[in-house]
Amino acid sequence: MRCRPWTRSESIAALSLYCKLPLGKISYRNPEVVDLSRLLGRTPSSIALKLVNFARLDPELQKRHVSGMRHGSQLDRQIWNEFYGQWEPLAYEGEDVLARLRGQPIEVSAKIDFADVPREGRERQRVIRARINQAFFRMMVLSSYENRCCITGIGVPAILVASHIVPWAVDKKNRMRPHNGLCLNALHDRAFDQGLLTITPDYKVRLASALLNADKDDALKNAFLAYADRTIRLPQKYPPDPSLLKYHNDHIFLG
Fold it and tell me: N or C: which end of the chain has fewer CB within 10 A?
């Protein structure tokens, strides 16, 4: 029996999931793969194969000789070319497909916290889009680092942060770009944000003098001094852009 052709909306949903999953989690057994297969009325194996075929188009993975089927569909390449690097449209359209399949408003499907979301109007839509973008950025960055802090290796997602190298408000062009992200635990994220530590363009941890000259108690030694000059754990996809790290070194790091 011939397989049912993939549609544009199905492919967008699959590409969105590809961007949010660690490579090692692309499997027909993955609950997120199973959930998408249920929504699309396809087998988990077909979803997993689609994700692998997107991987073959990923320039970051081509450097590592990761490949999918030799001949993927033309639609795969069309969707990839349209959305790769266009993170905001991908984040929203992918979530919109899921919402329609679930028969829910997008803000419900995306599990957005309504505590401070306006009830109606353009501001409501702006906030919803911003929340979807933020969640998508977080998932892209954390999954790329396999949900582990790039400095310490801590692997507890609840205390991990997708840290912007160049702040969200400073650089609109790079605010959704995963190469502008680092996976850090909450403590090191705060120190990075405040300029007490930086990551050099060659991916080494550098501490500010405020930490180096502080009283050397055990907490400081264990949390910061132990990692000085160490190379960070590099991600599977979306390596941090050295030019953005240089901006943090030059404009945010206290030295």
Answer: N
- In a 3-state reduction of DSSP, which class is residue 150? coil
Is residue 254 pLDDT above 50, yes or no?
Answer: yes
Position 124 scores a pLDDT of: 81
Number of domains in the chain: 2
> What is this structure's pTM?
0.90
User: How far is 240 from 217, CA to CA, in rounded Å?
Assistant: 31
Regarding whether 209 and 88 lie in a shared domain, the answer is: no
Indicate the residue among 141, 167, 186 that finishes a domain.
141
CB atoms within 10 A of CB 202: 8
> pLDDT tens digits for 32-73?
999 999 999 999 999 999 999 998 898 877 776 665 555 568
Average pLDDT over residues 109-121: 77
Q: Which domain does 158 fall in, by range?
A: 146-251
Strand partners, 198: 206
Rg (CA), the chain: 20
Task: Compute the C-alpha angle 241/195/86, nearest 5°.
Answer: 30
> What pLDDT is attached to residue 251?
96
Burial tier of 151 (Cβ tally within 10 Å: 0-12, 13-18, 19+): buried
Judge if 113 and 158 occupy the same domain: no
Supply the DSSP symbol for 166: S
Short-list 214, 226, 137, CA closest to 183:
137
Answer whether residue 175 shows pLDDT above 50. Answer: yes
